[in-house]
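Quick note —
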Amino acid sequence: MNFEDPNPRMVETPRAWIESLERVARAVVSVRIDATRPFDTGWNDTAQATAFVVDAEQGLLLTNRHVVRPGPVVAEAVFLNHEEATLRAVYRDPVHDFGFFRYDPAALRYMEPVALALRPDRARVGTEIRVVGNDAGEKLSILAGTLARLDRPAPSYGNRKYNDFNTFYVQAASSTSGGSSGSPVVDVHGDVVGLNAGSKTQAASSFFLPLDRIVPALARIRRGEPVPRGTLLTTFAHTPFDELRRLGLPDELEARARARDPDGNGLLIVEKILPGGPTDGQLELGDILIAVDDVEIATFVALEDHLDARVGQQITLTIARGGQLRAPSVEVVDLHAVSPSRYLEVGGAILHDLSYQRARSHDVPLSGVYVASPGYLLTRSELDRDCVIVGIGGQPTPTLAQLEARLAAIPHDAPVQARFYALDAPSRERTSVFFMDRRWFPMTRTARDDAACAWVSEPFGPPPPPAAARPTTITFPDDPDPRAHALVRSLVRVDTTLPFKIDGIHGSRFSGAGVLVDRARGLVLTDRNTVPITLGDVRLTVAGAVEVPGEIVFVHPLHNLAVVRFDPALLGDTDLREVTLASAPARPGDALLRVALRRNHQIFVQGVEVTTIEPLELPLPHPPRFLETNLERISVDSPIKTTGGLLANEAGEFVALWAVFSFQRGKENLTGEHGIPCDVLGDFLPALRRGEEPTLWDPAAEFRRVSLATARLQGLSDEAAARLEAHDRSSRHALQVSRALGGGGHPWQVGDIVLAVDGEPITRFRELERALTGAPVRVDLLREGVEEQVALEPVARDGRGTRRVIHWAGALLQELPRAVTLQRGLAPAGVYISLYWYGSPASRSKLRAARAIVAVDERPTPNLDAFLEVVRGRPDRSSLRIKSIDLEGKARLQTVRLDLEYYPTYELCWDGDGWRRVEHEA
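Predicted structure written out below.
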């Protein structure tokens, strides 16, 4: 890179800066980081930063700890000439914000980077500096500044984030921002005087880590030796002499300190003591540190030098407290031992020992297991990130090893009671129940191997078999209304949890009401706001008294209906009753009984009147997902919100499912409540009762009702209008196509008005659905003012929905859902991206959800099998060219570099007996 200005008269940069910056630029690299798992204070994410060469022969790069990360990371360096090199994390300091990557120097073919010298002695107030790095993602930026302070307290980024302590920071006004983390701070000689670490977002201030602790660490790493780090689990603060005098520092001690270091202006005091640590009960806040093992100490560097040399040993501290000297003896703790280097992955959750970083931030003892990510395992419980598990099943779990042993002995789907506390409220322990998962996600332990600069995973064996279930008989509470005595015995609560979000689903937990429609088979009818897809787990609660597992057996492809099944034997002699379907439909003005559930499991009974029965029209969601269409819903005269239930007539017969409909307005997910007439059940319930899989017939279009007056304006003849009027005396409407499935294969065009099917006039949605029985039909329609006859072959649909999902490169792939082809008009070709994981190759390559991959390396991928055929056998870290289209059909080409270590290929498939997870070999 040439730093010369083409117009010499305009050059203001001194020649020395130009020469040094040319050399520095050859040592600086842009770092791309994928943190593959949530760990300690960090999330799984994709980021960029800076590093620089400090040993060109060994390929050592210096950067920040928050770049190297305490957990698993995949990283690569991009040098000045755009050569790439894979990085391995060599060292991350447990406390201070520095760490080292290693690259293979032999991998560089066209560049010989130079190593920069670390010169902590050259950091002085007034020194002019340059920060050379990947500022704001610009790959190489050079920011100027002047060192203003050498004794700034370590910046605080908040309790939930990584924070440095027990060190000074250097401050300058250089306006660094994201991406410049890890940049060298160089002087005019091109030597490094500090490591850029952070900044203030509302000011120009930048914070640089001094190099005092980095230099000895680098020397040990060069020699292949471990870096010893000692701690007292105590935070010290440098305090000026005027404040020390108020704390009781004797005059003679102040005089000695000033004589020993005339430039010094203070000493260290105790700022924070970790409960249960070696100094707990020995030191108190405000104690002034005078000496360690009779060596007088006034700086952070001197203290850490002493502690690092005495890990595991007893030392004697000399402190001043209230004017009196004391000499407690304490043990130096290994700082690496209180920084987690292993984690447990179970049910998608990430668990590891509580770290000193997190314990210090919240003043809690170093005991218990930290929830880095709740995953799927803890979805239904109260445990979330930043919780600490202290016990399982009544047994304490102070360490991850003890928690592992407890969880490994628990069968799949067994309830587990956990005792825990949230770090934000450590004095309030709580309990919560979760259900063990060994089906959707593997259970593995992963440990860091510092010698190999890698994380090594070990899978657990299969779980023990489940215990035999015992029947439970319960009673129902007193009837809230005598009219609903039998009906309340038909209602249950249904809770669904989803391990993976497919089909555009917007959440992972759903709950609502279900209605028992078959007592012998345990069939429960509910809505798709409660059971949105078949890929999930379901549990049913009866009378708020007992919970039993269930199975999702049917999700209606066209309407807001689903059916789950449970084993009736589990409920013993419980007085559960199936509903009796009404023979007559509801009409406006009918008096009905609404029996529903509130969120607290309470039964809600209310007499209501049917106000309208009319089409339901909902706005399009983004991304596409199931949306109710082609339905005349029942509305009643009550605005009271429930979680669903049923509508019954005066005879106690089931007239309609009182369902909750999910929809989206703008970016807000909303719900509404309406009745779904029970005659829709005739399309699938008889088959389910026979133990068969129903087949439903999709008209391949979405319709709306238009008035005959509007239809006449579009060319409807008097004769055709008269036939529709005679057919339906209570309505003056016709059905018009508002959307049709993309890709063709049907005769519909938007705007078509349906006149008849096989010669029978059609004016209502249910009439059209009943006319479709699988065989091709003749449709008379009005198209742009001309009556035509077309052939329609309905599309067969089942109630299993998406039966196969593939995880590849951190993206979840499936066949194009019906919602995408109907709502966006895309042809059903390509594999659809349902979601992607942060910190994955898909995330790095910006391979976003709601896109369809149509080709890989110029080979078409019309379906999942074709996609697997193209990507099968590709080695780890190889790159593929991905062509995808968005919901509008606009194409984009991206490259994806595989990471088969952390994001291997596997699939979830339905095989008739349930969902299975199938691993694909690399």
